[in-house]
Each structure stands twice: as structure tokens, then as C-alpha cells.
């Protein structure tokens, strides 16, 4: 039998469309197959050096299939949505995370998988099962934290972003909003692609972030707390020679400041030229101010509008209930447990002289954007 030319072309077109439909649906089925996903993930890691950064950035917006919506579209995968807790280190991060978890009886997340991964756990648990880059949570095993389910809508997620190194000069801590934003998405995970568990650098697209909580602490107290943490690290490491010359008080803090200023003097001279700030620990206060500048500048780079809740660390002491409620409301979480009691240290007075505070104020004001200065200038109207 013979077909006309027009009929043959029609039959060929039908065969091509049917084949394409089968291939696309086969790909969708494989994407839905957890075993296939797990094998693919392990194969990826075997092929990569373990220092290679893993990301699905280029696979975030997947093409639509014949069903009208591909199975990995963000609308049906990224729940709960990420709410960054953006805080310069030592400004109340841990308290805020645990307060939210205990009050709501729901889990929190973090970019840093080591914090929520048990020693005998082969892989850090991503809040998104198909996305091993995280963020991560402790799961329901109870090995790291009390077992709590993931929230339904939004999950508070720890990130310290960039520009927060301690022993570093301007060459390292000066950052652009683009780099800062990328560092906000970076973290690490423990994964076992083969026989041995390894630590991997990971990152995810900033477009997944729905909201942000901006946590701010008095800059003087924040830097003092940074010194206290550094002192504890030296104690853990038994650095007796350093400890002998750096007592855990105002005298030790100033010795630490002088160490940093001296060590990075060459970089300071190159960056600041003849206008090196006179404030003690000027690098630390520069980092603190720049960090808060970059919070707003980096979030503005995300294509969609990111609502921001600004929280002051000191409000936990003066207005605890209303501050806690504002955070929980922002996360759309119900209070089902007791609010964690807040206890702040009260021994931060007297670390800086009035003249030093004036120099610190000058540095912060010079570096701060108009928005940042508006948010932090009240700290310099207080007695120290």
C-alpha cells in the first residue's frame, strides 16, 4: 500500500511527537524516582574533587514539560521558604534560633551543615530532599537537637554571609554587594558519596530566599563579644603564651586590638592611605559597619522584593515579649511553647574611654550608608 506525500509527512510528525512525549515523560519519571536521584547525586560527587563547590544554580528554573508544570519547579518544591537570619557573629544568633524553635516547636535551618549533623550520620539533611546543597536541619532523630518538624510556610535560616573574618586585613574583608550576597548563600555539608564522609562547600540560588530578619547589636558590645569568643578559642587550644598577655577584660581587649592593628598595618596603609582610623580595633568596627551596609545592598540584588524585619539584640532585654512575638509573626508561626528566658551579660561597661568611643563613632558614621547610620546611631547616644 502507498501513502500520499501529505499522509506520510503527517505520520512522520506523529511518530516524532510521540517519541518526544515519551522521552520527556521518562525524564520526569526519573526525576521523581528517589533511588535514581540518590544514585545521580553520588555519581556527581565521585566525579568531583571533594573541594568542588556543589550548586544547582543553573538548574533552578527547569523547563516546563507536557504536564504543564515540571516536577522541580520552585512553586512545588521549595517549601518551607527560607527566611534568612542575617546577623554579624556574636549578636544573638543562637538565642534567636533556639527561642523560635522552642516557642513554635518547629525546626530551624542553617547554611552550615556541621552544626546539625550527627557524627554517625552519613549526610547532612537538606530541608529540600532533592537539593543536597541545603539549607540543613537536624531532622527527627533527636541526636543533635530535640526532634521538631519543619514549619509549614517559612523557616528561619542561619547565615553570617561574608566580611566577618577575625584575623584579616582590608584585602580580605572589603567586599562588594554581589560577593556578599553569594556568601550569604554559601555553607558546607557532610556527605558520603563513597565509603568516606567528606565536607563539601555548597551554595544555593538567592532567589529561594523569601524574607530576611536583620539582627543588630550594639557595635561596642558586639566587638567585645568577638574578643571573648576569641579568648575562649585560645583557651580551648591551650595557647598559654597568648593567654598570658591577653586577659579576658578591657586590658586584654586592647592588647588584641593592638595586635590586629600592627599585623595589618601595611594593608591598612595601602587601603586607607594617610587616613587610617584612630579607633581601637578599627578593622573590626569597619567590618561591623560594612556588614550592615551590605545586608540591604545585597538583598536589593535579589530579583523579587524581600521583606526585612529589623531586630535589635538589646530589645530582648527591654521588650522581650513584643520582640519575640514580632519574629514569630514574621515567620507565621504559632506560639505553642514557653518563650525562652533571655539573660544578657552586664559587664561590657568601661572597655572603651569616651575619647575612644568618639573615634569609633566617627569611623562608623564615615563608613555607614545613610540607611545603616539611621539604624545604629542611637547606640552612640547611650552611656558606655
Explained architecture:
The protein is an alpha/beta fold and 384 residues long. Helix content is 43%, strand content 11%. The chain is built from 14 helices and nine strands. A hairpin with a 6-residue loop joins strand 6 and strand 7 (198-203). Helix 5 (177-185) crosses helix 10 and helix 10 (282-299) runs parallel beside helix 13. The protein is globular. Mean pLDDT is 83; it is low at 24-74.
Query: How does the helix and strand content classify structurally?
Result: alpha/beta
Beta strand count? 9
Provide the gyration radius in Å. 25 Å
How do the strands line up in the largest sheet?
Answer: 2-5-1-8-9
- The outline comes out as globular
Poorly predicted segments: 24-74
Number of helices: 14
- Average pLDDT number: 83
SSE topology:
Blueprint: H1 5-32, H2 34-47, E1 81-87, H3 93-104, E2 109-110, E3 125-126, E4 136-137, E5 154-159, H4 170-173, H5 177-185, E6 186-191, E7 198-203, E8 209-216, H6 219-236, H7 240-245, H8 250-263, H9 265-272, H10 282-299, E9 308-312, H11 315-318, H12 320-330, H13 354-367, H14 370-376
Helix pairs in contact: 5-10, 10-13
Features:
alpha/beta, 5-stranded parallel sheet, two-stranded antiparallel sheet, 14 helices, single chain, 384 residues, 9 strands
Concise account of the structure shown:
The chain is built from 14 helices and nine strands. With 384 residues, the chain is of the alpha/beta class. The strands form three sheets. Strands 2-5-1-8-9 form a five-stranded parallel beta sheet, covered by helices on one side.
